[in-house]
Amino acid sequence: MQLTLEQFLEQEREKLKQFEAYWKRNAKKEPETFPSSLMAGDWDEMLAEFDGNE
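Structure (tokenized):
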């Protein structure tokens, strides 16, 4: 399926919003597992593993 640039960016923005909510929600419950700061590459890895269904 083809997407316009705008469609792709909107999907990515939505994924980032969902990831932020997921991380903050879980950080309250398990701060050791969901720290408030990571190295940039680690954030990339965490986002890549996030599927939005958690």
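The chain is about 65% helix and 0% strand. Helices lie at 5-29, 40-49.
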